[in-house]
């Protein structure tokens, strides 16, 4: 599903540059649930943004679902992004003046679906995350956990092959974090491939594989016994 070989990325700083990714090799099969760990500044988001086609590598190979991702036009990249990928962020990135349902329906607008169909699909996914009753509420009226659930519903709306999450529990308390992880585990059990960037050990342990980044290379890459996310009540 995802093949990365000898990937490099630098950022220019003044006259010099910062070499952030120094030859990353990563293969991910369909159905995996992978944690990408590493200390702050180790390049986790840089890697995820390249995988998510929000940014481009300087060197190396990236193949997503058999499609080589390189030198795509902005338009083509947008089409692939919308078709293949769903994103979840630490800060939810919901649109403040749109209600929960409208937020979930938005990616479907870019797919050119008719309004009625968009609403139908958005309702289905809101229900899946347990928030159908909150459809008409604005993000400001939702808790952090509820906002992240709306963001997950939005990411799922276009039925992506790969779900990418950058510190999805970083802004949530432990109970809510585990609740979100339990939901991601459920999605993974239903077959969704998921990559989660985190620097929290307990969150990484809830994945099936842990990849550790250090100084721009993968230091460790292990399949682990997945800890079930349970929510104490
Ligand atoms: P992480 O997500 O692991 O904390 P990042 O991938 O965000 O790390 O950043 C890796 C390094 O690259 C950091 O030193 C960061 O300051 C730098 N960096 C990230 N994005 C940019 C950018 N757009 N321009 C310049 N430097 C950047
Ligand atoms: Mg980051």
Hetero groups bound?
adenosine-5'-diphosphate, magnesium ion
Number of helices: 7
According to CATH, what is the class? Alpha Beta
Structural class assignment: alpha/beta
Measure the end-to-end span.
37 Å
What is the domain total for the residues?
A: 1
Which sequence of SSEs, written as H and E, runs from N to C? Answer: EEEHEEHEHHHEHEHEE
What name goes with the CATH superfamily? P-loop containing nucleotide triphosphate hydrolases
Number of E strands: 10
Average pLDDT reading:
95
Would you mind describing this structure in some detail?
By secondary structure, this protein is an alpha/beta fold. It has a single domain, classed as P-loop containing nucleotide triphosphate hydrolases (Rossmann fold, 3-Layer(aba) Sandwich), CATH 3.40.50. Helices cover 33% and strands 28% of the residues. It is built from 7 helices and 10 strands. The protein has helices spanning 44-51, 74-84, 100-110, 115-128, 144-157, 174-189, 201-204, and strands at 2-13, 16-28, 33-37, 59-64, 67-68, 85-89, 162-166, 193-197, 209-214, 217-223. Strands 6-7-8-3-9-10 form a 6-stranded mixed β-sheet, with helices on both faces. A 4-stranded antiparallel β-sheet has the order 2-1-4-5, covered by helices on one side. Strand 4 (59-64) and strand 5 form a beta hairpin. Helix 3 (100-110) runs parallel beside helix 5 (144-157), helix 4 (115-128) packs across helix 5 (144-157) and helix 5 runs parallel beside helix 6. It starts with a strand and ends in a 10-residue tail after the last strand. The model has no long low-confidence stretch (mean pLDDT 95). Magnesium ion binds next to helix 1.
């Amino acid at each position: 599903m995802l093949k990365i070989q000898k990937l490099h990325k630098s950022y220019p700083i003044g006259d010099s540059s910062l070499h952030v990714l120094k030859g990353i090799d990563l293969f991910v099969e369909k159905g995996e649930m992978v944690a990408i760990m590493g200390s702050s500044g180790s390049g986790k988001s840089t890697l995820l943004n390249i995988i998510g086609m929000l940014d481009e590598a300087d060197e190396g190979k990236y193949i997503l679902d058999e499609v080589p991702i390189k030198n795509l036009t902005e338009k083509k990249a947008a089409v692939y992004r919308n078709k293949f990928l769903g994103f979840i962020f630490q800060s939810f990135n919901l649109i403040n003046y749109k209600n929960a349902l409208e937020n979930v329906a938005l990616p479907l607008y870019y797919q050119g679906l008719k309004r009625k169909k968009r609403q139908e699909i958005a309702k289905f996914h809101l229900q899946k995350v347990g928030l159908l009753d909150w459809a008409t509420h604005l993000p400001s009226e939702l808790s952090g956990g509820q906002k992240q659930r709306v963001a997950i519903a939005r990411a799922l709306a276009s039925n992506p092959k790969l779900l990418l999450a950058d510190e999805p529990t970083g802004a949530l308390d432990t109970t809510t974090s585990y609740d979100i992880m339990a939901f991601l585990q459920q999605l993974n059990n239903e077959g969704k491939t998921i990559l989660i960037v985190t620097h929290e050990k307990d969150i990484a342990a809830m994945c099936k594989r842990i990849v550790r980044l250090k100084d721009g290379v993968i230091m460790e890459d292990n399949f682990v016994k997945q800890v079930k996310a349970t929510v104490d009540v």
